[in-house]
TrEMBL record:
The keyword Magnesium does not apply. It comes from Thalassobacterium maritimum. InterPro entries: BatD. The chain crosses the membrane at residues 471-489. Residues 1-21 form the signal peptide. This is BatD family protein. Residues 419-436 have a biased composition (Polar residues). Keywords: Membrane, Signal, Transmembrane, Transmembrane helix. The lineage of its organism: Bacteria, Pseudomonadati, Verrucomicrobiota, Opitutia, Puniceicoccales. It comes from the Bacteria. Residues 400-439 are annotated as: Disordered. Pfam families: BatD (PF13584).
Length: 607
C-alpha cells in the first residue's frame, strides 16, 4: 500500500511538471513578401515556457525540411533569447530558439514550405507551413542589398591533406554604400586550419557593371582530414545604404516612419554577409613509393647542405646547416633526421624561416642548424642527409640527398689534468733547525684549493678582542669568500679539463633555459618543442648519459632504471605523444596550455 501511494505521488508530480512546461513551434518568412532579386529569411521558432524553473535549451542543428518548390535555402544559423515575467506574484520563464535560413526565390510567384515534424527533447513536434510571395520589381527600384554588398572566396576544388595553399577573401562594397564597421569575422571550416585574418588590402574593381570598393584578405588554408570538406566565411558589418526604406517595399513606396532624410543619407544597418557555400575535395597522400625520409612536406623544394668549417678537434662542435627552399607548407616541414653513428653526436636543430616576399609564407627558405660534435679523431664523414616531399602537380614523391661531407678531426689539444697530491709533506723529527720539508710551490688557484689551516705560532691577543662580534664576523666573511673563490676556480678548471663535466653543466643550463621558454610559450608548437628537449636534458643530467636526441622509449627505459614513479613516466609518455601529434599530425592549436605547463613542471621536478 505504501509503495502504491509513493508511485501515485511521483506520477502526479511528473504530470504537474510536464503540464507546467509548454513548447510552441512556429514558422514564417521574414518578410513574407519581397521583390524579385531580394532575399527573405525562413525562421523556425521553438519557444518553451515553464512556471517552475528556467527551461534548458536543446540545440537543434538540422531540420528535415521538405522540398520548398525551388526556393534556394542556404546559410543556416541559430539565435537564442530568454525572458522572465512575474505576473501577480507568479513567475513565468521562457526560452526561445530560432533557426534562421536565407531563402532566395528563383522566379515571381508563391513558394510554400509544407508542414513537417522533427524531434526535440525526445518528443515529436510539428512545424506549420509557411508561404513566401515574390512580386515583380518596380522599374525604378534600386539594386538589392546582395548586389551592393557581397563576399567572395576564391578556393581550390581539390587539395591533399596537409597541403597548404593561399586563398583570397574579398568583400565587395558598392560605392553607393558607406561601410561604417566590420563587427566580426567567422568561418565554418572544421576540416581545415586557417591562418589568422590579417589587415585588409583595399582596391577598386569594376564588377557586373558597378564600381566597388574591395577589401581583400590573403589567407592560407591547410586541410587536416580527407573527404568533401565545407569551407565558408562570414562577416557581420554595419553600413549606411541610401534609400534602404524604399527597397524594403516591393512597390517602391516609402515605409511608415520613413523620411526624405533617410532617402538621402540612409540608415546604418547591421548585415551578415556570407560567401557562396563551397566544398573542397581533400585527398589522402598516396602510400605507394613513399620514402622513409618523408615527414609531410608538400610542394616543390630544393635542398642545400653545408658546414661552417671542414676541420675541427675531438669534442669541438661544428655547425651543420640544411636549407630547404621553394614553395609549399613550410610550417609543417621539420628538420631532416641525422643518422645515428659512433663518430658524431648531434642535437635538435634550431630552425629559421625567411620568406622570399614579405607576408608570403608559402615561398621562402627554411634553415635548420645542427650542432655536430665529433667523438673521435681522423678523417670522418657527416653522413648522407635525405629529405623527401610530395609534388601535387606531378603527383609523385621526390627524395633529395646530399653526399657525405668529409671532416678532418684532430686530437684534442686540451691538456690532461695532472693528479693533485692532497697529502701534506711529512717531516722527520730532527734537532736541526735548518731542516725543511721539500714543498711544491703552489699557484694562487692551488693555494686557494688546498688551504692550510694548520695551527701556527701566532702572537697572543687579548681574549676580550677575540670575543668581539665584529672580528668574528669579518673572519667569517673572509673564510666564506675564500671558500667560494676556491669552488668557483675549481668549477672553471673542471670546465676546461673535463669534457664530460662541461657537457653536464651545459645540459643543466640548457635545461633551465628550455623549461623557462616552455613556460613562457603561447603557441602549442613552440611549447611542445621546448618541453620535449627540456625532458631529454633533465634525463641527461640525472643519468649523466647523452640523451639529447633520445626517443620516448629510450627515455622511459632510463626513467625506469632510475626508479622514477610510474605516474611521472606515464605523464612523460603522454607529453611526448601530444608533442608528436602537434609535430607530425598537424594538430596545432592555440588552446590554453596551463595544464600542459603544470604537467611539464611536475615531470621536471620528479626527474
Amino acid at each position: 500500500m505504501h509503495r502504491l501511494q509513493l508511485f501515485l505521488s511521483l506520477s502526479l508530480t511528473l504530470l504537474a511538471l510536464s503540464a507546467s512546461a509548454q513548447i510552441h513551434v512556429t514558422a514564417r518568412f521574414n518578410p513574407p513578401r519581397i521583390a524579385m532579386g531580394d532575399k527573405s529569411q525562413y525562421v523556425v521558432e521553438i519557444k518553451e515556457t515553464d512556471s517552475s524553473q528556467k527551461p534548458e535549451i536543446e540545440r537543434v542543428t538540422s531540420l528535415p525540411i521538405p522540398q520548398a518548390g525551388g526556393l534556394e535555402l542556404s546559410n543556416g544559423r541559430t539565435s537564442t533569447s530568454q525572458q522572465t515575467s512575474i505576473i501577480n506574484g507568479t513567475a513565468e520563464y521562457s526560452v526561445t530558439q530560432q533557426l534562421i535560413i536565407d531563402a532566395k526565390p528563383p522566379r515571381v510567384g508563391k513558394f510554400s514550405i509544407p508542414s513537417y515534424v522533427f524531434q526535440y527533447k525526445g518528443e515529436t513536434y510539428r512545424v506549420p507551413a509557411a508561404t513566401l510571395e515574390t512580386v515583380e520589381r518596380s522599374a525604378d527600384a534600386g539594386p538589392t542589398t546582395d548586389e551592393l554588398i557581397f563576399l567572395k572566396a576564391e578556393t581550390p576544388e581539390q587539395l591533399y591533406v596537409g597541403q597548404t595553399t593561399a586563398i583570397e577573401l574579398k568583400l565587395y562594397v558598392s560605392e553607393d554604400v558607406r561601410l561604417t564597421s566590420l563587427n566580426s569575422f567567422d568561418r565554418s571550416a572544421d576540416g581545415f586550419t586557417i591562418s589568422e585574418l590579417p589587415e585588409s588590402q583595399q582596391s577598386r574593381e569594376f564588377y557586373n557593371g558597378r564600381q566597388y570598393q574591395v577589401y581583400n584578405w590573403p589567407l592560407t588554408i591547410t586541410p587536416i582530414q580527407t573527404g568533401e570538406q565545407d569551407l565558408s566565411f562570414q562577416f557581420t558589418i554595419s553600413a549606411n545604404i541610401p534609400g534602404q526604406n524604399n527597397r524594403r517595399d516591393p512597390f517602391g513606396r516609402r515605409g511608415f516612419g520613413g523620411s526624405l532624410f533617410d532617402d538621402l543619407f540612409g540608415q546604418s544597418e547591421r548585415f551578415t554577409v556570407y560567401n557562396e557555400p563551397t566544398q573542397v575535395e581533400v585527398l589522402a597522400l598516396p602510400t605507394a613509393d613513399q620514402p622513409d625520409s618523408f615527414t609531410g612536406a608538400i610542394g616543390d623544394f630544393s635542398m642545400k647542405v653545408y658546414t661552417d668549417r671542414d676541420h675541427t678537434q675531438v669534442g669541438e662542435p661544428i655547425m651543420l646547416s640544411i636549407e630547404i627552399s621553394g614553395q609549399g607548407n613550410f610550417e609543417r616541414i621539420n628538420g631532416p633526421n641525422i643518422p645515428n653513428n659512433q663518430e658524431w653526436r648531434s642535437y635538435e636543430p634550431e630552425s629559421q624561416f625567411s620568406a622570399h616576399n614579405p607576408g608570403n609564407v608559402l615561398r621562402g627558405t627554411k634553415r635548420f642548424d645542427y650542432v655536430m660534435i665529433p667523438n673521435q679523431a681522423g678523417s670522418i664523414e657527416i653522413p648522407e642527409i635525405s629529405f623527401a616531399y610530395y609534388a601535387p602537380e606531378s603527383e609523385r614523391y621526390t627524395e633529395l640527398s646530399s653526399p657525405p661531407i668529409p671532416i678532418e678531426v684532430s686530437p684534442s689539444d686540451k691538456p690532461t689534468p695532472a693528479p693533485i697530491n692532497n697529502q701534506l709533506p711529512t717531516t722527520e723529527t730532527t734537532n736541526s733547525t735548518s731542516a725543511r720539508p721539500l714543498q711544491k710551490e703552489l699557484s694562487i688557484e692551488d693555494a686557494l684549493l688546498t688551504l692550510d689551516y694548520r695551527p701556527q705560532n701566532n702572537p697572543t691577543f687579548n681574549s676580550s678582542k677575540l670575543q668581539k662580534t665584529s672580528i668574528w664576523l669579518i673572519n667569517t666573511i673572509i673564510a666564506a669568500a675564500l671558500l667560494a673563490t676556491a669552488l668557483w676556480m675549481r668549477h672553471k678548471r673542471r670546465l676546461k679539463e673535463d669534457a664530460s663535466y662541461a657537457d653536464l653543466q651545459a645540459a643543466k643550463h640548457e635545461r633551465r633555459t628550455l623549461a623557462k621558454s616552455a613556460q613562457q610559450a603561447t603557441d602549442s608548437e613552440q611549447f611542445y618543442a621546448h618541453a620535449q628537449n627540456a625532458v631529454r636534458l633533465a634525463v641527461t643530467c640525472r643519468t649523466q648519459q647523452n640523451l639529447r636526441t633520445a626517443n620516448i622509449n629510450e627515455l622511459v627505459a632510463q626513467l625506469e632504471q632510475q626508479q622514477i614513479p610510474e605516474p611521472i613516466i606515464s605523464q612523460t609518455r603522454e607529453l611526448f605523444q601530444t608533442a608528436d601529434a602537434q609535430r607530425f599530425a598537424g594538430n596545432r592549436t592555440h588552446s590554453d596550455l596551463s595544464s600542459a605547463k603544470s604537467q611539464l613542471e611536475r615531470i621536471l621536478k620528479a626527474i
